[in-house]
Design brief:
2 copies of one chain form a homodimer. By secondary structure, the first copy, chain A, is an alpha/beta fold. Helices cover 41% and strands 15% of the residues of chain A. In chain A, the strands form 2 sheets. Chain A has a 6-stranded parallel beta sheet with strand order 3-2-1-6-7-8, with helices on both faces.
Chain lengths: 295, 295
């Protein structure tokens, strides 16, 4: 494996560690991974695309809730609509720390907005958003803010027999709308927080309930095992909510956001994962030093 | 597509309908199916392997419950252990008709037997069973009672870009143990009734709860949509509990068990699906006339 692979990565310890691991996993020896066991899982927000100032799905959701508040101003008196109207970002950051009250309030609001929606209608809403809405700082649709080096890593892994999955705390059905075009990952390889569906009157309709809880923290290996029957041979993440998934993997890659010029520099929400990486010998990639090209 | 494909199938309307549909689905025209949408789903019991006198998983389960009753004879006074001791097959047939009390009693007993069991231990139990236990009539391990014509159909579908999934009311994790060796289907393409799992103390442990309900009847398209983000382009089943899945599919294939000599002849539990096949124009395959070889 030479410079032809991972072309957007700079020569350096992160790229080398990945190449070494992939070679070891696919060559007879102590670190060999049976082809059947080659499951690779990646977080989305902050691992595959920009998650600052808030993960892009919030933009999609806020637009829907904004319309609901406009139609019924009394909603503005209660959460999460109140936080939206007051631009209280701290409230929404409570998702990452899995504050039960915040989570319950959000899931209830998601149900209010989309329960009963047929998948085709939800898909159309997401497609319209990916097509028309632009990230304010970068001026491009959010789906263009996917890190090219990660897509190259998917190619490398697939070329070595890994099946690549995305496993995100974000909405499974939201991600599935653009997974194939944007990541080259089939819908069935997208794992995430998800509503239940019912077969009613000869069609699939979204239920108010969410099945299997949030796909964050311990929920990540739980969702991965339920979906694939395995724990990952390779996992990539960037935040404290990825720790359990990274611990469950044979090889763990942690994205460090340290590139203020090209993206953002922050460790908030990643303090524990950076400490775990040091303690457990995970490979940490510096966006600034390890990636020649971001998008 | 000539006689080289589906070699264990006799020339006839079922084989022809399958070949015609696969050609139409992969050739530009009105019935073309986009490669991304080529999801094929198959029931297991009675569709991929012999389900008489009871689906083989019951044999596995009964052996475990038999040991439990031996260790604690008081269990024999309550269900489902009572039905096991009294050889009351009718009680267990209540699963297929989804009698709520029977289902609840069984799920509770499954939890009693396997909650807290790490996956590796459960796998070892199933592997031991597949290796050592033989079907009384045929004298071979149950995994050798898989219909060869169906495995050839999987090959045909995969050769035309379909991703093949098994979607069964049986235990997802039970099937995953032998899915790869027996069907050539990766674990992640097995959908079924399933316990939840928790990530506890750095490992995955089976919970007492079952997530998403039984994968029978309406549960089949619900589980398929949740797992894959699509409804099937091709589906195969054999019983009334497959009706909703078959209705949700672009092409539906129904197995008719009419071969008393080589297998079994019965319509019990399939009356409504046979009627639906006639009404909706599904392809019905006769085991006796359409399959040259069974196993």
């Amino acid at each position: 494996m030479t410079e032809q692979v991972l072309p957007s990565w700079n020569q350096g310890p992160a790229r080398q560690a990945i190449l070494d691991h992939v070679r070891a996993a696919t060559t007879p020896g102590a670190a060999f991974v049976e082809p059947a066991d080659r499951i690779a899982t990646f977080d989305n927000d902050g691992t595959l695309w920009v998650e600052q100032p808030l993960p892009p799905q919030f933009d999609f959701v806020f637009r829907a809730w904004g319309k609901e508040v406009k139609a019924d101003p009394s909603l503005a008196e209660r959460q999460p609509y109140k936080a939206l109207v007051e631009r209280d970002q701290g409230f929404f950051e409570g998702v990452a720390t899995q504050e039960p009250e915040v989570v319950a309030t959000l899931l209830e609001a998601f149900a209010r907005s989309w329960a009963g929606t047929p998948p085709a209608e939800f898909d159309a809403q997401v497609r319209e958003w990916t097509r028309t809405v632009r990230d304010p700082r970068f001026g491009v649709p959010y789906v263009e803010l996917v890190y090219r080096p990660m897509l190259e890593l998917f190619d490398l892994l697939r070329a070595h027999g890994f099946r690549v999955f995305v496993c995100s705390g974000g909405g499974r059905d939201f991600m599935r709308v653009f997974a194939e075009d944007t990541w080259g990952i089939p819908k069935e390889n997208v794992i995430g927080t998800a509503a239940a569906y019912t077969w009613t009157g000869g069609r699939i309709v979204r239920s108010p309930e969410f099945l299997g809880g949030l796909d964050l923290g311990p929920g990540k290996p739980e969702h991965i095992f339920a979906h694939t029957g395995r724990l990952p041979a390779f996992a990539g993440g960037n935040a404290d909510v990825d720790i359990e998934m990274l611990r469950s993997a044979a090889f763990a890659l942690l994205v460090r956001h340290d590139d203020e010029r090209r993206e953002y520099a922050y460790t908030k929400g990643a303090e524990a994962s950076l400490a775990a990486a040091e303690e457990l010998g995970w490979t940490v990639l510096s966006m600034k030093s390890d990636w020649a090209t971001l998008f």
